[in-house]
Amino acid sequence: MKVCIPLRAAALALAATTVHAAPAAPPVDVFIGTAGDGHTFPGAARPFGMVQLSPDTQVRHFRQSYPWASGYRHDDQSILGFSHTHFSGSGHSDLGDVLLMPYSGETKLEPGYPERPFSGYRSRFTHADEKAEPGYYAVRLQDHRIDVELTASERVGLHRYRYAAGEPAKVLLDLRQSIYDYASKNLWARLRMRDAQTVTGMRETRGWAPGRQLYFAVRFSQPIAARQLLNREEGVEYKGFAPPGKTPADKVLVEGKALVGTFEFAPPPGNALLVKVALSPVSEDNAIANLDEMPGWDFDAERGRARDAWNTALSVVDIDAPEPMRKMVYTGLYHALLAPTLFMDRDGSYRRPDNAVHKADGFRFHSTFSLWDTYRALHPLLTLLAPEQRNADFVRSLIASRRHSPYGILPVWQFHGLETWCMIGYHAVPVIADAYMKGIPFDADEALAAMTASAEYGPYGGLEHYMKLGYVPIDLEPEAASKTVEYAFDDWTIARVAEKMGKRDVAARYFKRAQNWRNVFDPKTGFVRARKSTGEFRTPFNPVQSNFGSDYTEGSAWQYSWYMPHDNAGLIHMLGGDAGLVAKIDQVFDAKVDEAVYAHMEDISGLIGHYAHGNEPSHHVAYLYNYAGAPWKTQARLAQIVASQYSDKPDGLSGNDDLGQMSAWLVFTALGFYPVAPGSNEYVIGRPFVERATLNLPNGKRFTIRAENLSPANGYIGKVTLNGQPLARSFLRHDEIVAGGELVFMMQAAPNKDWGKDRSARPYTQTPYR
């Protein structure tokens, strides 16, 4: 594994004690995305694991949480502590549960301030004393003179703290902290002594997902010598003190909204104290049972198991490319394998919005579905590369969530089993549809019922008006233009599933609904626009206007007017033919745009003209030239995007990674193709950015991509062969990839304007080409 940033000598010496043989590993740099707007975290996790154990650097009680959505920013110079749950690249902040901070010297119960060293328990650090790789993180806490190492299994985080020789070991547990923009989000919390080495607890929060409950068990590698369990609520008497040996262990507890625990230990053997923290969605007892997932106290062995798990997960692709690109693509794949996250106990138990405990039967329940972002490329990437059972688990988790939903619909944006109602659309539908169309096994009848229930739930997002009028009216529902076009795409994916299942009446109904995007497209201006319930477009109209709750969702007409990925030939017809689409997309990229125009919208970032790669509505736009017979222009735009929107530095993502979507876009694009319309079973060919890549597919087959003569000067496709035969069309079929074989790109300096030009060579579209 590549060492991203060197750690101080003492910590390196500690790491060198490992006896676990390390297999070769791809060059992942977990710090990519931790600066700028990437919002990723550098800490330890397993692929799709329930625990994300990572440092938090955010300022307590800050009012602008957006930059610290993952808890960590590379620009910061002090660490608040190490908590066990984090989003990877979200545009919204939450989590940061069960924060531990090892310390020395005086006990301080408040975190203090970054600009005032020693004002609290936080500590300064430097990147020179920091090291991280998949499944492992280490840092030196300068103010406490403590070396910290972290690793994780699926449900358990493992800490190793090395203190100065002969010093007592001290640890603070703070349940007040959270990665959220409220000063305090705790509804209730509990800390309970279980025995001389074990503490359990819970907290219920009112953050992004109201009423979220999380339970935990903390076990130390040696007995506690002294402890305090405190409720720091203003005006509440401190409770929870109990001298060891004087009170039964299970009676030592404290409850309230502002709980802190401090624990002191005799100088540990070898100066190293280890701490395990297990999480549970169900109960403290289940959290204790989950500790058995990590028997013993061999930190180096657990680190090795985490490394091996990541090496296995990342080995689905073998990549040859110049080192910066190779690192960027493997890091993108790493980020794509962090979510959705496991959210059930070892016995299969999980908690649902009805506050009842359920058991998964024949699948592993997952949550953290950022569906508005991830249906586009992340889930198609996982469907292609992840094991079949894993993808089946994702779909079955979505269907189980609908089964327990009080509204009878699929999740919209779900984490820890709860709905946030964030973003728009019913985008669990294309995730399920794409999986079904590609042969992932699950109950198709129940899935279709869940999909149609979501599409016909009138109270949600103006659907009652959409079903009646054929569009969402802006005078009755905000973000109406965006909702109409996104609903239309989701409807098309339902039609595709129904058609394959032989349910012709359902297919016909939803194919018709899939054309509703036309009801908000204005041929006179060439833009998607919001309409009133009386039928007219809303005026005045400014295609650059974007605001929360306006006509569009996190975008303007310049980003949303090309969103009918299932029917791009229909868009071409609306714009007067191939030349009309090419000219319009050229305008998107070539416009001279003052970035101040979008400065009020945090998510509209990564601008190239009006193209905003930092947010998802733009992600398919560069590939649209293929539908107009000009794939050479797609090739040129992709080079422009990759060069300006990604790098192998901490600020190497131009926008929120959004649970892996930005990363999945890069992985697909680097391989040379992209799923513009999930559910079509086609991938639109762009151009490769790696010299060679072999997909080691779940079915045991291999699909190899080679780019001959690839160089910065040779950025255009001259010709393409598939299994030795010329490929004239500008798309691949899913079945062609999973069958194994070889795709070869012959790259050259000048564009081949004839390749992919014919209508028969163009990708799928619901409306036939004319």
Radius of gyration, Cα only, in angstroms? 26 Å
Biggest beta sheet summary: 9 strands, antiparallel
Under the CATH scheme, the architecture of the domain at 9-311 is: Distorted Sandwich
Bin the helical content: 10-25%
Strand content: 15-25%
Note the gap between the termini.
Answer: 53 Å
Kindly report the spatial arrangement of strands forming the biggest sheet: 7-8-9-10-18-14-13-12-16
Helix/strand-derived category reads: alpha+beta
Query: How many DSSP H or I helices?
Result: 18
Low-confidence stretches: 1-23, 238-249
Work out the number of β strands: 37
Mean pLDDT: 92
CATH hierarchy class name of the domain at 9-311: Mainly Beta
CATH topology of the domain at 9-311: Beta-galactosidase, Chain A, domain 5
- How would you describe the shape? globular
Domain Glycosyl hydrolase family 92 N-terminal: 28-280
Keywords: Hydrolase, Signal
Pfam families: Glyco_hydro_92 (PF07971), Glyco_hydro_92N (PF17678)
GO biological process, one term: carbohydrate metabolic process
